[in-house]
Amino acid sequence: MDAVSAVPEPRNEPIRSYSPGSPERASLSAAVAELAGQRVEFTQTVGGARRMAGGDRVDVVQPHNRAHVLGVTAQATPDDVAGAVRAAKDAAPAWRALPFDERAAILLRAADLLAGPWRDTLNAATILGQSKSVQQAEIDSACELIDFWRFNVAFARRLLAEQPESGPGIWNRFDHRPLDGFVVAITPFNFTAIAGNLPTAPALMGNTVVWKPSVTQSLAAHHTMRLLEAAGLPPGVINLVTGDGPAVSEVALADPDFAGLHFTGSTKTFKYLWRTMASHLDTYRAYPRIVGETGGKDFVVAHASADPAALSVGLVRGAFEYQGQKCSAASRAYVARSVWEGGVRDQLADTTKSLTYGDVTDFSHFGGAVIDHRAFAKHADLFERVHAEGTLEVLTGGTADDSEGFFVQPTVLVGDDPTHEVFRTEYFGPILAVHVFDDADYPKVLELVDSSTAYGLTGAVFATDRHAVEEAQQALRFTAGNFYVNDKPTGAVVGQQPFGGSRASGTNDKAGSIFNLQRWISPRSIKETFVPPTSHGYPHMG
Ligand SMILES: NC(=O)c1ccc[n+]([C@@H]2O[C@H](COP(=O)([O-])OP(=O)(O)OC[C@H]3O[C@@H](n4cnc5c(N)ncnc54)[C@H](O)[C@@H]3O)[C@@H](O)[C@H]2O)c1
Ligand SMILES: N[C@@H](CCC=O)C(=O)O
């Protein structure tokens, strides 16, 4: 059991500007050129050994320049996953026996390496592999991941300090054990920070992990694994397996020692994994912990008192940064008619038309491409339907072109029918659906926002009238796990806006918070009696 020592006080990592002429811009450009010139074998890392998976090979490309292959990976086979599970089990006794401070030191060192010599590498990998602009890479693969590692150590320390009361002659203690088995972390393409956090949070609490990142995040995942090794992570604590994941569900989720799933990705995948776990319930030694943060259909509501300039910027940044590929992205907006017709319509159209999506290695672009051909096809199909149907006004955008990369233009669709699919479906791309309502209908619109989708992730209200803010806060209490007032619904910061949603958006365990870390321990209560009774009788017996 761990002694409780102080840990360094975490502070959010400052965001670098990369403005023209700055030394950080020159250094990042050099890292981008270097990584773009390599062709990497994205191997698995199992028990510390690197080896290509045994299944079909897959090229990993730059989404904005799809002819440019960054490297090759391969589908994990059931044997590959069984090897990773074995390695996680073998490493468990030594890892959980290591005092907390020693485990924490590895993540603190990883954070410092990332804040320093590894920053350019992870940012460059995220720019090239996931088509993020410099700004979007910096807030993700540098700042958020550094914050996850530093803040989690401080949260874990608070958790370990939690101890029960003790009466006279008795000492009660909590032994904050890791889970009784291994954890599976399955991570999405869109955030390098999430991919780095999901395996390391359970590891910090003493668990060993099988980590399956997304194929389209292979480049940044590969360098994250190398960074953790450089920080001193022992072999077998985190075992990276590659590919699309079917073998992970088939083998790891069916193992009797499977003890927890740490997932972020789509609602559809999470439901599939949950059903798979349910089908193996009788084989598990313990009930697995299930943490899943999933999709969203995130809203902005603008009251008649909204500040038009703040609203326009909130909509543009909220909907179109990182091509709308944030689970938190604004994808449906409900705007009071007086605000819409009073200038927001024109401002939103003009600003959206001025955004450039292009090759993100040219740092002047606002954004890049959507992640792959599947995401591209989904958007191209939607545009075809919208043009054919003719019920929505295409205020701007509505086109897609994959001749160079998977480019989808930032698009604003205006619709009279708020039940249309564009107000209910998560497309995960740069599409903002707008419904304009009569100013007097604000209470009705709040009800509509609450009831029209299955999700409950993020949302924002824009209003300067405090009554309108309060009304929205009450009416939308269960509509969003992260609620914003006069701000865009994206860009949560670790330690400041703990992130996660409920309903179809997940288990709301708030990544990067004490609530999340609590899911990766299984406390044991210990009672010690210093002078035990030596007679079985009680006073009332005479
Ligand atoms: N709520 C949040 O915090 C949050 C954060 C980021 C992304 N997301 C959501 O993630 C989605 C986008 O990410 P994505 O496209 O990578 O999601 P996805 O569900 O397609 O994939 C997520 C991960 O699951 C794996 N996977 C898919 N099928 C599997 C199977 N049968 N067995 C095992 N693994 C399997 C994928 O390979 C990937 O690693 C969006 O819906 C977005 O809203 C949510
Ligand atoms: N935490 C991020 C979103 C993560 C999902 O993609 C945000 O707040 O924008």
UniProtKB/TrEMBL annotation:
Q: What is its EC number?
A: 1.2.1.88
Q: Where is the Aldehyde dehydrogenase domain?
A: 56-519
Region of interest (Disordered), ranges:
1-24
Q: In which pathway does it act?
A: Amino-acid degradation; L-proline degradation into L-glutamate; L-glutamate from L-proline: step 2/2
User: Which PROSITE patterns has this protein been placed in?
Assistant: ALDEHYDE_DEHYDR_CYS
Listed InterPro entries: Ald_DH/histidinol_DH, Ald_DH_C, Ald_DH_CS_CYS, Ald_DH_N, Aldehyde_DH_dom, P5CDH/ALDH4A1, Proline_metab_enzyme
Molecular function GO terms recorded: L-glutamate gamma-semialdehyde dehydrogenase activity; proline dehydrogenase activity
- What keywords were assigned to this record? NAD, Oxidoreductase, Proline metabolism
Q: Where are the transmembrane segments?
A: none
Q: Extract the Pfam families matched here.
A: Aldedh
- Into which family does the record put it? Belongs to the aldehyde dehydrogenase family.
Designated name of the protein:
L-glutamate gamma-semialdehyde dehydrogenase
What does the organism's lineage look like at the top? Bacteria, Bacillati, Actinomycetota, Actinomycetes, Pseudonocardiales
